[in-house]
Design goal:
Pfam family, one (chain B): ExbD
Shape of chain A: globular
Shape of chain B: elongated
CATH topology of one domain in chain B: Nucleotidyltransferase, domain 5
Order of helices and strands of chain B: HEEEHEEHEHEE
Structural class of chain B: alpha/beta
Strand order of the largest sheet of chain A: 4-3-2-5-6
Strand content of chain B: 15-25%
InterPro entries (chain B): ExbD
Structural class of chain A: alpha/beta
Strand order of the largest sheet of chain B: 5-4-3-6-7
Main location (chain B): membrane
Subcellular location (chain B): Cell membrane
Largest interface: A-B, 49 and 52 residues
Number of strands of chain A: 6
Number of strands of chain B: 8
Order of helices and strands of chain A: HEEEEHHHEHHHE
Helix content of chain A: 40-55%
Radius of gyration of chain B: 25 Å
Family (chain B): Belongs to the ExbD/TolR family.
Distance between the termini of chain B: 66 Å
CATH class of one domain in chain B: Alpha Beta
Largest sheet of chain A: 5 strands, mixed
Strand content of chain A: 5-15%
Oligomer: heterodimer
Number of helices of chain B: 4
Protein backbone atom coordinates (compact mmCIF):
# COMPACT_ATOMS: atom_id res chain seq x y z
CA UNK A 1 0.00 0.00 0.00
CA UNK A 2 2.68 2.45 1.05
CA UNK A 3 4.62 1.58 -2.11
CA UNK A 4 1.75 2.58 -4.37
CA UNK A 5 1.23 5.73 -2.34
CA UNK A 6 4.94 6.48 -2.66
CA UNK A 7 4.80 6.02 -6.40
CA UNK A 8 1.83 8.37 -6.73
CA UNK A 9 3.45 10.84 -4.37
CA UNK A 10 6.58 10.97 -6.49
CA UNK A 11 4.51 11.39 -9.64
CA UNK A 12 2.67 14.39 -8.23
CA UNK A 13 5.85 15.83 -6.74
CA UNK A 14 7.46 15.82 -10.15
CA UNK A 15 4.49 17.19 -12.09
CA UNK A 16 3.63 19.97 -9.65
CA UNK A 17 4.41 23.48 -10.74
CA UNK A 18 3.50 25.96 -8.08
CA UNK A 19 1.70 28.60 -10.07
CA UNK A 20 3.13 32.09 -9.75
CA UNK A 21 0.68 34.46 -11.30
CA UNK A 22 2.06 37.75 -10.22
CA UNK A 23 2.87 40.81 -12.20
CA UNK A 24 2.38 44.47 -12.93
CA UNK A 25 -1.16 45.39 -13.87
CA UNK A 26 -2.02 48.02 -16.41
CA UNK A 27 -5.30 49.22 -17.87
CA UNK A 28 -5.04 49.96 -21.57
CA UNK A 29 -6.92 52.94 -22.99
CA UNK A 30 -10.12 52.20 -24.92
CA UNK A 31 -9.79 51.86 -28.65
CA UNK A 32 -9.96 55.15 -30.50
CA UNK A 33 -13.24 55.94 -32.21
CA UNK A 34 -12.58 56.38 -35.94
CA UNK A 35 -15.46 58.88 -36.23
CA UNK A 36 -14.01 61.22 -33.68
CA UNK A 37 -10.77 63.13 -33.98
CA UNK A 38 -8.12 62.23 -31.41
CA UNK A 39 -8.72 64.17 -28.20
CA UNK A 40 -6.81 67.35 -27.75
CA UNK A 41 -4.32 67.39 -24.92
CA UNK A 42 -5.81 69.92 -22.56
CA UNK A 43 -3.39 69.23 -19.74
CA UNK A 44 -0.94 71.90 -18.87
CA UNK A 45 2.51 70.86 -20.01
CA UNK A 46 3.94 71.11 -16.50
CA UNK A 47 1.40 68.54 -15.31
CA UNK A 48 2.82 65.87 -17.58
CA UNK A 49 5.91 63.97 -16.53
CA UNK A 50 7.44 62.74 -19.75
CA UNK A 51 9.59 59.65 -19.94
CA UNK A 52 10.85 58.52 -23.32
CA UNK A 53 12.89 55.46 -24.14
CA UNK A 54 14.71 55.00 -27.43
CA UNK A 55 15.81 51.89 -29.30
CA UNK A 56 19.19 51.76 -27.60
CA UNK A 57 17.55 51.72 -24.18
CA UNK A 58 18.45 55.28 -23.31
CA UNK A 59 16.00 57.32 -21.32
CA UNK A 60 14.89 60.90 -21.79
CA UNK A 61 13.15 62.19 -18.68
CA UNK A 62 11.57 65.65 -18.78
CA UNK A 63 13.53 66.43 -21.98
CA UNK A 64 16.89 65.61 -20.47
CA UNK A 65 18.97 62.46 -20.87
CA UNK A 66 18.62 60.35 -17.79
CA UNK A 67 21.54 58.58 -16.19
CA UNK A 68 20.25 57.77 -12.71
CA UNK A 69 18.99 54.47 -11.39
CA UNK A 70 15.40 53.26 -11.31
CA UNK A 71 15.29 54.03 -7.58
CA UNK A 72 16.06 57.68 -8.37
CA UNK A 73 13.39 57.70 -11.06
CA UNK A 74 10.88 56.34 -8.56
CA UNK A 75 11.75 59.10 -6.11
CA UNK A 76 11.50 61.76 -8.79
CA UNK A 77 8.09 60.56 -9.94
CA UNK A 78 6.93 60.60 -6.33
CA UNK A 79 8.20 64.14 -5.85
CA UNK A 80 6.48 65.16 -9.05
CA UNK A 81 3.11 63.70 -8.03
CA UNK A 82 3.28 65.15 -4.53
CA UNK A 83 4.25 68.60 -5.73
CA UNK A 84 1.43 70.91 -4.78
CA UNK A 85 2.64 73.74 -7.00
CA UNK A 86 -0.65 75.45 -7.66
CA UNK A 87 -3.33 73.21 -6.12
CA UNK A 88 -6.91 73.33 -7.25
CA UNK A 89 -9.73 73.02 -4.71
CA UNK A 90 -9.62 69.25 -5.03
CA UNK A 91 -5.88 69.34 -4.59
CA UNK A 92 -6.22 71.22 -1.31
CA UNK A 93 -8.69 68.59 -0.09
CA UNK A 94 -6.18 65.89 -0.99
CA UNK A 95 -3.42 67.74 0.84
CA UNK A 96 -5.54 68.09 3.97
CA UNK A 97 -6.39 64.39 3.89
CA UNK A 98 -2.74 63.37 4.04
CA UNK A 99 -1.37 62.15 7.38
CA UNK A 100 1.02 64.58 9.05
CA UNK A 101 4.31 62.72 8.36
CA UNK A 102 3.41 62.80 4.70
CA UNK A 103 2.59 66.50 4.81
CA UNK A 104 6.02 67.05 6.31
CA UNK A 105 7.56 65.11 3.45
CA UNK A 106 5.59 67.11 0.89
CA UNK A 107 6.82 70.32 2.47
CA UNK A 108 10.37 69.02 2.47
CA UNK A 109 10.14 68.37 -1.29
CA UNK A 110 9.13 71.99 -1.63
CA UNK A 111 6.55 73.51 -3.93
CA UNK A 112 7.97 74.00 -7.36
CA UNK A 113 5.82 76.13 -9.59
CA UNK A 114 7.29 74.64 -12.76
CA UNK A 115 6.28 71.12 -11.66
CA UNK A 116 2.83 69.57 -11.28
CA UNK A 117 -0.09 71.50 -9.79
CA UNK A 118 -1.41 68.74 -7.55
CA UNK A 119 -1.92 64.94 -7.58
CA UNK A 120 -5.38 65.16 -9.13
CA UNK A 121 -4.03 66.93 -12.19
CA UNK A 122 -0.75 65.26 -13.01
CA UNK A 123 -0.06 62.49 -15.48
CA UNK A 124 3.01 60.35 -15.94
CA UNK A 125 3.54 59.67 -19.61
CA UNK A 126 5.82 56.89 -20.77
CA UNK A 127 6.64 56.25 -24.37
CA UNK A 128 8.85 53.44 -25.57
CA UNK A 129 10.16 52.95 -29.09
CA UNK A 130 9.63 49.72 -31.01
CA UNK A 131 13.22 48.76 -30.41
CA UNK A 132 13.21 49.35 -26.67
CA UNK A 133 13.82 46.18 -24.72
CA UNK A 134 10.91 44.75 -22.77
CA UNK A 135 13.13 44.61 -19.71
CA UNK A 136 13.61 48.38 -19.64
CA UNK A 137 9.89 48.90 -20.27
CA UNK A 138 9.05 46.77 -17.23
CA UNK A 139 11.71 48.47 -15.11
CA UNK A 140 10.34 51.94 -15.87
CA UNK A 141 6.74 50.81 -15.38
CA UNK A 142 7.80 49.22 -12.11
CA UNK A 143 9.41 52.48 -10.97
CA UNK A 144 6.30 54.54 -11.81
CA UNK A 145 3.99 52.03 -10.14
CA UNK A 146 6.37 51.93 -7.19
CA UNK A 147 6.10 55.67 -6.74
CA UNK A 148 2.31 55.56 -6.74
CA UNK A 149 2.18 52.55 -4.44
CA UNK A 150 4.45 54.32 -1.96
CA UNK A 151 2.14 57.33 -1.99
CA UNK A 152 -0.96 55.19 -1.44
CA UNK A 153 0.67 53.11 1.28
CA UNK A 154 1.94 56.19 3.11
CA UNK A 155 -1.44 57.83 2.88
CA UNK A 156 -3.10 55.08 4.90
CA UNK A 157 -0.04 54.45 7.04
CA UNK A 158 0.98 50.96 5.98
CA UNK A 159 4.08 49.57 4.29
CA UNK A 160 4.25 49.06 0.54
CA UNK A 161 4.26 45.28 1.02
CA UNK A 162 1.08 45.47 3.06
CA UNK A 163 -0.44 47.75 0.45
CA UNK A 164 0.28 45.29 -2.34
CA UNK A 165 -1.15 42.43 -0.33
CA UNK A 166 -4.47 44.16 0.41
CA UNK A 167 -7.38 41.80 -0.14
CA UNK A 168 -10.22 43.59 -1.89
CA UNK A 169 -12.79 40.98 -0.87
CA UNK A 170 -12.43 42.08 2.71
CA UNK A 171 -14.58 45.14 3.46
CA UNK A 172 -12.18 46.81 5.88
CA UNK A 173 -9.24 46.38 3.55
CA UNK A 174 -11.27 47.48 0.56
CA UNK A 175 -12.29 50.61 2.42
CA UNK A 176 -8.62 51.29 3.18
CA UNK A 177 -7.80 50.78 -0.48
CA UNK A 178 -10.49 53.20 -1.61
CA UNK A 179 -9.43 55.76 0.97
CA UNK A 180 -5.86 55.66 -0.30
CA UNK A 181 -6.87 55.81 -3.93
CA UNK A 182 -9.49 58.56 -3.63
CA UNK A 183 -8.58 61.66 -5.65
CA UNK A 184 -5.05 60.48 -6.43
CA UNK A 185 -5.56 58.67 -9.72
CA UNK A 186 -2.84 56.34 -10.90
CA UNK A 187 -2.50 58.35 -14.08
CA UNK A 188 0.03 56.45 -16.13
CA UNK A 189 -0.19 57.03 -19.84
CA UNK A 190 1.51 54.56 -22.13
CA UNK A 191 1.90 56.21 -25.51
CA UNK A 192 1.86 54.18 -28.71
CA UNK A 193 5.29 53.84 -30.27
CA UNK A 194 5.89 55.51 -33.60
CA UNK A 195 5.58 53.27 -36.61
CA UNK B 1 27.68 -5.94 39.72
CA UNK B 2 24.62 -6.88 37.81
CA UNK B 3 22.92 -4.00 39.50
CA UNK B 4 24.71 -1.61 37.18
CA UNK B 5 24.13 -3.59 34.01
CA UNK B 6 22.86 -1.35 31.33
CA UNK B 7 19.30 -2.11 30.51
CA UNK B 8 19.33 -2.49 26.77
CA UNK B 9 15.87 -3.74 26.03
CA UNK B 10 14.75 -0.46 24.48
CA UNK B 11 13.62 -0.64 20.89
CA UNK B 12 15.97 0.69 18.30
CA UNK B 13 13.63 0.97 15.29
CA UNK B 14 11.42 3.91 14.52
CA UNK B 15 7.79 2.84 14.59
CA UNK B 16 6.64 2.69 10.98
CA UNK B 17 2.99 1.99 11.59
CA UNK B 18 2.05 5.60 10.85
CA UNK B 19 4.24 5.88 7.76
CA UNK B 20 1.51 5.13 5.21
CA UNK B 21 -0.65 7.79 6.85
CA UNK B 22 2.08 10.39 6.48
CA UNK B 23 2.73 9.40 2.90
CA UNK B 24 -0.99 9.59 2.12
CA UNK B 25 -1.18 13.00 3.67
CA UNK B 26 1.66 14.27 1.50
CA UNK B 27 0.12 12.56 -1.50
CA UNK B 28 -3.21 14.29 -0.98
CA UNK B 29 -1.47 17.62 -0.49
CA UNK B 30 0.32 17.36 -3.80
CA UNK B 31 -2.73 15.96 -5.58
CA UNK B 32 -4.78 18.93 -4.48
CA UNK B 33 -2.19 21.60 -5.27
CA UNK B 34 -1.15 20.19 -8.63
CA UNK B 35 -2.29 22.09 -11.67
CA UNK B 36 -1.75 20.06 -14.77
CA UNK B 37 -0.06 22.19 -17.36
CA UNK B 38 -2.53 22.74 -20.15
CA UNK B 39 -0.26 24.18 -22.74
CA UNK B 40 3.18 23.28 -23.87
CA UNK B 41 5.12 26.51 -23.97
CA UNK B 42 7.09 26.70 -27.17
CA UNK B 43 8.84 30.00 -26.59
CA UNK B 44 11.65 31.00 -24.28
CA UNK B 45 10.29 32.31 -21.04
CA UNK B 46 12.62 34.19 -18.82
CA UNK B 47 10.30 36.62 -17.11
CA UNK B 48 11.48 40.11 -16.14
CA UNK B 49 12.09 41.02 -12.53
CA UNK B 50 10.06 43.68 -10.79
CA UNK B 51 9.20 44.81 -7.30
CA UNK B 52 5.63 46.09 -7.43
CA UNK B 53 3.83 42.84 -8.00
CA UNK B 54 0.16 42.27 -7.49
CA UNK B 55 -1.59 38.95 -7.38
CA UNK B 56 -4.38 37.96 -9.71
CA UNK B 57 -7.62 37.98 -7.83
CA UNK B 58 -9.62 35.56 -9.92
CA UNK B 59 -7.82 32.93 -11.87
CA UNK B 60 -10.79 32.03 -14.05
CA UNK B 61 -10.72 35.46 -15.67
CA UNK B 62 -7.16 35.14 -16.88
CA UNK B 63 -5.94 34.18 -20.34
CA UNK B 64 -2.33 33.86 -21.25
CA UNK B 65 -0.31 35.21 -24.13
CA UNK B 66 3.26 34.02 -24.41
CA UNK B 67 5.82 36.03 -26.36
CA UNK B 68 9.43 35.08 -26.91
CA UNK B 69 12.00 33.53 -29.16
CA UNK B 70 10.89 30.01 -30.22
CA UNK B 71 12.70 27.21 -28.43
CA UNK B 72 12.90 25.27 -31.66
CA UNK B 73 14.88 27.83 -33.65
CA UNK B 74 15.66 25.37 -36.45
CA UNK B 75 12.00 25.14 -37.36
CA UNK B 76 10.60 28.54 -36.45
CA UNK B 77 13.58 30.91 -36.72
CA UNK B 78 14.76 33.17 -33.95
CA UNK B 79 12.38 36.09 -34.33
CA UNK B 80 10.09 36.49 -31.28
CA UNK B 81 6.71 34.87 -31.76
CA UNK B 82 3.34 35.07 -30.06
CA UNK B 83 1.86 31.89 -28.65
CA UNK B 84 -1.69 31.42 -27.45
CA UNK B 85 -2.91 28.05 -26.22
CA UNK B 86 -0.77 25.60 -28.18
CA UNK B 87 -0.15 27.47 -31.40
CA UNK B 88 1.84 30.36 -32.76
CA UNK B 89 -0.34 33.21 -33.95
CA UNK B 90 0.23 36.49 -35.75
CA UNK B 91 -0.63 39.73 -34.00
CA UNK B 92 -3.79 40.20 -36.08
CA UNK B 93 -5.21 36.89 -34.85
CA UNK B 94 -5.22 38.07 -31.24
CA UNK B 95 -8.70 39.57 -31.59
CA UNK B 96 -10.06 36.17 -32.52
CA UNK B 97 -8.26 34.55 -29.60
CA UNK B 98 -9.66 37.09 -27.17
CA UNK B 99 -13.21 36.57 -28.36
CA UNK B 100 -12.77 32.82 -27.99
CA UNK B 101 -11.57 33.31 -24.45
CA UNK B 102 -14.43 35.70 -23.71
CA UNK B 103 -16.93 33.12 -24.91
CA UNK B 104 -15.76 30.80 -22.16
CA UNK B 105 -16.80 33.31 -19.51
CA UNK B 106 -20.29 34.22 -18.41
CA UNK B 107 -21.71 37.37 -19.88
CA UNK B 108 -21.27 39.57 -16.82
CA UNK B 109 -17.62 38.70 -16.50
CA UNK B 110 -16.60 39.28 -20.07
CA UNK B 111 -15.42 42.81 -19.55
CA UNK B 112 -13.25 41.81 -16.63
CA UNK B 113 -11.10 39.46 -18.63
CA UNK B 114 -7.41 39.89 -17.78
CA UNK B 115 -4.71 39.11 -20.29
CA UNK B 116 -1.56 37.87 -18.67
CA UNK B 117 1.38 38.67 -20.89
CA UNK B 118 4.25 36.31 -20.31
CA UNK B 119 7.00 37.98 -22.22
CA UNK B 120 10.65 37.00 -22.36
CA UNK B 121 13.11 39.69 -21.24
CA UNK B 122 14.96 39.67 -24.56
CA UNK B 123 11.92 40.66 -26.59
CA UNK B 124 11.73 44.17 -28.03
CA UNK B 125 8.74 46.42 -27.42
CA UNK B 126 7.56 46.41 -31.05
CA UNK B 127 5.79 43.08 -30.93
CA UNK B 128 4.46 43.75 -27.42
CA UNK B 129 2.86 47.01 -28.47
CA UNK B 130 1.38 45.34 -31.57
CA UNK B 131 -0.32 42.87 -29.24
CA UNK B 132 -1.48 45.71 -27.01
CA UNK B 133 -3.05 47.50 -29.97
CA UNK B 134 -4.93 44.31 -30.80
CA UNK B 135 -6.06 43.92 -27.21
CA UNK B 136 -7.47 47.43 -27.29
CA UNK B 137 -9.22 46.50 -30.52
CA UNK B 138 -10.67 43.41 -28.83
CA UNK B 139 -11.67 45.41 -25.77
CA UNK B 140 -9.63 43.32 -23.35
CA UNK B 141 -7.99 46.20 -21.61
CA UNK B 142 -6.80 44.68 -18.38
CA UNK B 143 -3.24 43.57 -18.86
CA UNK B 144 -0.90 41.90 -16.43
CA UNK B 145 2.78 41.86 -17.25
CA UNK B 146 3.78 38.64 -15.61
CA UNK B 147 7.04 39.03 -13.73
CA UNK B 148 8.97 37.54 -10.85
CA UNK B 149 9.93 39.15 -7.60
CA UNK B 150 13.18 41.02 -7.62
CA UNK B 151 15.41 40.21 -4.69
CA UNK B 152 15.85 43.17 -2.37
CA UNK B 153 19.28 44.66 -2.47
Amino acid sequence: MADIAFLLLIFFLVTTTIANDKGITLLLPPKPDPNEPPPEVTKNDKNIYKILANSSDQLLVEDEPYKGTMEDLKREVKEFVLNFGDPTEEGIIVYNSLPSPMKAEVNRFGKRLDSSDDPTECVVSFKAARGTSYELYINVLDAINGAYNEIYAQRVGISVEEWLALDKDDDIQKDMYNRARSNIPRAISIAEPDK
Amino acid sequence: MSKFKKSSNTQQEIPTAALPDIIFMLLFFFMVTTVMRETDIMVKQQLPRATQLTKIERKSLVSYIYIGEPKNTAQYGNEPKIQTNDVFVEANEIVQFVSQEKDKLSEVERDQITMSMKVDVEVKMGIVSDVQQELREANARKVLYSSVKKAEI
